[in-house]
Amino acid sequence: MRNRFFLALTVVLLLTASVSLPAADDGTLPDGPLQDATLPIDQIQPGMKGVAYTIFSGDTVEPMDLTVIGVLRNALGPKLDVILVQLLGDKPEHSGVVAGMSGSPVFINGKLAGALSLKLGMFTKEAIGGVTPIANMYDINNALPADGAAKVTAASPKSNPDANSWATVSAGSYALRIPVSNELARRASLDAGSYLVPIETPLIMTGVYPETIAQFASQFSALGMTAMVGGKAAPSPEDAKLKPGDMVGMELVGGDLSLDAGCTVTAIVGDRVFACGHPLFSFGDVSIPLTRGHVVMTLNSSMASTKIMSSGSVIGTLTEDRTTAVMGRLGAGPRMIPMDVAIVTPQEEKRFHFEVAELRQLTPLLVAVSALNGISGNTAYTEGTTLQLSGAIDLKDHGSVKLEDFYAPQDSGAPSGLQIAFAVLRTFSEIYTNPYEPPKIDKISLRVTSLPEHRSATIESAWSEKSEAEPGETIGVKVLLRPYRGSPFIQEIPITIPLQSARGPMELLVSDGETLNRMTQPFGAPSQLAGLDELVAMMNRERHNDRLYAALLQPTPTLLVEDKELPNVPLSEINIMDQRRNPGAARLLNQSAAGEWSVPMNQVIAGQRALTITVK
Question: pTM for the full model?
Fold first, then answer.
């Protein structure tokens, strides 16, 4: 019944909505019902003439003559055909199919046939492209619920990627290679083995430092995007007055840094905007601000010509990112995650504000890009600088995840700022892709203090003033540390043997925070916890890398239940947990922590040493 209703709704839209279109190939403006203004794929024949519309510079939509070479049946999948065309004229023959032309409307016999969406493989300026049929683009309507609203969803327990999935995210369409049949290749004077790929999407970066582009360009390239420096245009009341052939941006990050992906508008049906003719990321239901795009110029290249864009004000929301097109609604933009970054040096403090789109698969990467770009904005920042991070990720109804650590330059040459960016990314990913519930991120706050020297030290040795002690007795533990430069120094940690300690040997572990985290909190998958509150609590208990730790361990088991640590667990309790069919969140450690002490060191500590203390 619901499917019939969706079909009826689609037919009503097609029969009643009018489309704003530029002049067709015969010089007239298509009018009348939408179904009369479109050309079905089965009516398209080789040799037919047509016109595509796009912008090469400014806001002027220009026509490009074209000839139909043939139809590639089921090229994108069952009943997903592609129309192979050759663009004619000085501009397309000089530039080839340009990144940013995706979505350029194609008219044949005065009717809308589809959107330019594919091009020949790399290193060619042949003006031959593939067209996504308009009927397949309008099929996005079938994905909407009855009220026409977007089904924007967040993370769910069954669909979460792992915390590092941002690094391997790759839109399936951009690995697509559509072979051109030998017959069509001969007809187009192409070499055998020619293939079509989706047209790249320009990713316009504004306010981005070269360091940021260098570190993350490959991740965006894997998503089918060509990263380049662009600009922001002043908002205008005319921004929302779109017509087919105009450019639109899809804002991934806004504020003091902006990242906008650009496509061409294919058609406008009521308040709905259809563009690209291929997916942006293949993410399905999305919620991305839709902005007005302006073409500064078209950069011609033998490798890949591209449009250089600037983006204007927000004019709506992109709600659907599907195989054959993207679709959005004109109007208000969606909520974005606010992110504040403060950079503090002895001379000044700089503040940056960003807004990040909420995309389960991509937001962690966007947060990392924003963090690194904010840090790179510090004029005192160099690769020899140690950075101190403090901050929080605030969650609605679940408190905050604290961010505290030091980051010193590494021998590998990785700058401290990049270490912070990846640390924030890992923490944010663990929260954002949790398996319990979609998190509501209220805001992200980072404060990075620049310390003008390399601050790190390695644990070389450790010893105690006594090898035997009684319960309740305090003994001094001395640790020899070697700094990055300078003479070794000794740091003392006083520890007190717990009164309830059993007689016999105990291990005293002197270490950095990471080592102690690994030994005492091996929870494994977050799904072993009871919920998001427990995950936040566990993350906030992690030790920091700027402290020197001493932990007294005894050879009695510790039971980990959800986010709780139960040391010295009786054997009877362990047996009960073993007999449960689904112990789920319970794990057993071979050691229990009898006590833990630490001292702040104001530098990064690395290394570990183990001692033995015998309790008398």
Answer: 0.80
Domain final residue, candidates 310, 330, 350? 330
Tell me, what DSSP letter sits at residue 38?
B
Number of residues written out for the chain: 616
Q: Which residues contact 214 (CB under 8 A, 6 or more apart)?
A: none
Query: What is the rounded distance in angstroms from the CA atom of residue 152 to the CA atom of residue 289?
Result: 13
Q: Looking at the 3D structure of the chain, how many domains does it have?
A: 3
- DSSP class of residue 174 equals G
Buried b (16+ CB within 10 A) or exposed e, 264-302: bbbbbbeebbbbbbbbbbbbeebbbbbbbbbbeebbeee
Query: Is residue 133 a contact partner of residue 83, using CB atoms and an 8 Å limit?
Result: yes
Structural domain containing residue 430: 337-451
Q: Model confidence over 16-57: pLDDT tens digits?
A: 333 444 444 443 334 433 434 899 999 999 999 999 999 998
**What is the Cα–Cα distance from 443 to 460, expressed in whole angstroms?**
41
pLDDT digits (tens, 9 = 90+) for 275-328: 999 999 889 999 999 999 998 888 776 667 788 888 889 999 999 999 999 999
Shared domain for 83 and 128, answered yes or no, is: yes
* Residue from 369, 360, 373, 374 nearest 429 by CA: 360
Task: Let me know whether 523 and 381 are in one domain.
Answer: no
Q: For residues 241 and 330, what is the distance between their CA atoms, to the nearest angstrom?
A: 10
Residue 467: other Cβ atoms inside 10 A: 12
Phi, psi of 416 (to 5 degrees): -60, -35
Which of 326, 325, 320, 305 is closest to 200 using CA atoms? 305
Whether the Cβ atoms of residue 145 and residue 151 lie closer than 8 Å to each other: yes
Q: Among 330, 347, 371, which residue terminates a domain?
A: 330
